[in-house]
Amino acid sequence: MFMPYDFSIIIKEFPVFIPAAILTLELALSSILLGTGIGLFVSFARISKSKVFNIPASIYITIIRGTPILLQLFIIYYGITSLLLIDPFPAAVIAFGVHNGAYIAEIFRGAIQSIDKGQMEAARSLGMTYPKAMRRIILPQAIKRALPALGNQFIITIKDTSLASAITIRELLLKSQQLGSSNFRFMEYFIIAGIYYLTFTATFSYLVHKVESYLAVSDH
Fold it and tell me: What local confidence, expressed as pLDDT, does residue 2 receive?
């Protein structure tokens, strides 16, 4: 029998989701930090002239971008737990970090290669080493150019954390499924989860926009 929606549940049960929301945010931020570190390292490997670095980086990016993130999550979680005991949360952080690292690497690579080569040559002519020139001249400009794409990738990461429910992490989606199964009010609980996700992504979009605006002003 059809049950009419009871939207009073949304208001009443909204605070119940706070622990799951915090866990979702922790998972997203941890994955973003790991993915950014991996992406930056792999981007340097991709632009390296050495095949020792370039080829493995290219293979890594091809595999990660060519397979579903849910499959990667299962492979990392069940693959690691078959060798040693690991909790679902760190396994999810590794999976999402490795996944995002491939996309972030390509974002950084494109941004770095978009900087005029003459700037590196000028820095080297002034006596800077390659790492110093990259750190002080090239990277600051590349990060500014990469920021919009990085912001989009970070927002995608926040939404992708819902897949962690597949390995029993009680983030927002799994919380809504569990509560919905107790009284069959799935839609109301899904709406609560959706509001939290929307709040996170909207806030993050706003922060990225503010950083972009600040950097644009500083250029002038």
Answer: 54
